[in-house]
């Protein structure tokens, strides 16, 4: 059982005809992902990459049965794109766009709460279930099918962890890049929960960073769940100075609980196998599954 996306997912690309949308949609199609069309207002009725273009998401849902969307819409319009997808009945909304204003995301986040959909991102690399669907900007060749799930705030560390796990001969079930913005749809806890509940996933790699409480919430949930599936954790940003945003908009130490040291302490207390260097992730996963 994959998580969020699989070979049956029918994907549309919002911002389909723009340069980012075009490049990554072609990569997704080449990977074998079932891209059924795209949305660019004003260009409906055209074809692009041999797929139909629609003016609205609801038209795409009606015409091609889309259930998953990936958003490459510019920051000023991306929150509206999220709300439009939710309104049209899209079940999984993966938002790649970086730099969406926080005020816009507050509105979009509130809007989707009473709708039956799962938002991943924004400012994330997307989701991949190896061999089935790549809905994102990650390098597909790094990911091979296997039994380890990944949840990560960092795009590049997602790829690094996947590469190490694959080199250990274990492979990946689904990798979820949740994004590093202050307001995101799928939290570390929500992604961890999905992977722990997944029958094919035998271990999870959880990559976090300084700022916020997401990793602590996930660790506490894991401990309370009583799950015997091992979780390997890493927190980026150990040397970051307090009060300064580092890389991601959400990566800012606001208090003593937001530091890498504090998060690692909580994670260890909850039974997570914490590594101090990203170079140790693959070896630690092999060890805990050994």
Automatic annotation (TrEMBL):
Binding-site residues, CoA: 17-20, 43, 96-98
Catalytic activity: succinate + ATP + CoA = succinyl-CoA + ADP + phosphate; GTP + succinate + CoA = succinyl-CoA + GDP + phosphate
Keywords for the protein's UniProt record, in alphabetical order: Ligase, Nucleotide-binding, Tricarboxylic acid cycle
Function: Succinyl-CoA synthetase functions in the citric acid cycle (TCA), coupling the hydrolysis of succinyl-CoA to the synthesis of either ATP or GTP and thus represents the only step of substrate-level phosphorylation in the TCA. The alpha subunit of the enzyme binds the substrates coenzyme A and phosphate, while succinate binding and nucleotide specificity is provided by the beta subunit.
Annotated GO MF terms: nucleotide binding; succinate-CoA ligase (ADP-forming) activity; succinate-CoA ligase (GDP-forming) activity
Pathway note: Carbohydrate metabolism; tricarboxylic acid cycle; succinate from succinyl-CoA (ligase route): step 1/1
PANTHER family xrefs: SUCCINATE--COA LIGASE [ADP_GDP-FORMING] SUBUNIT ALPHA, MITOCHONDRIAL, SUCCINYL-COA LIGASE SUBUNIT ALPHA
Enzyme Commission no: 6.2.1.5
Family: Belongs to the succinate/malate CoA ligase alpha subunit family.
GN (gene name): sucD
InterPro entries linked: Cit_synth/succinyl-CoA_lig_AS, Citrt_syn/SCS-alpha_CS, CoA-bd, CoA_lig_alpha, NAD(P)-bd_dom_sf, SUCC_ACL_C, Succinyl-CoA_synth-like
Organism: Aureitalea marina
One CC-aspect GO term: succinate-CoA ligase complex (ADP-forming)
SUPFAM superfamilies: NAD(P)-binding Rossmann-fold domains, Succinyl-CoA synthetase domains
Chain positions recorded as substrate binding sites: 159
Oligomer status and interactors: Heterotetramer of two alpha and two beta subunits.
Protein name in the entry: Succinate--CoA ligase [ADP-forming] subunit alpha
Gene3D superfamilies: NAD(P)-binding Rossmann-like Domain, Succinyl-CoA synthetase domains
Any single GO BP term: tricarboxylic acid cycle
PROSITE patterns in alphabetical order: SUCCINYL_COA_LIG_1, SUCCINYL_COA_LIG_2
Cross-referenced NCBIfam families: PRK05678.1, sucCoAalpha
CoA-binding domain sequence ranges: 4-100
Catalytic machinery residues: 248
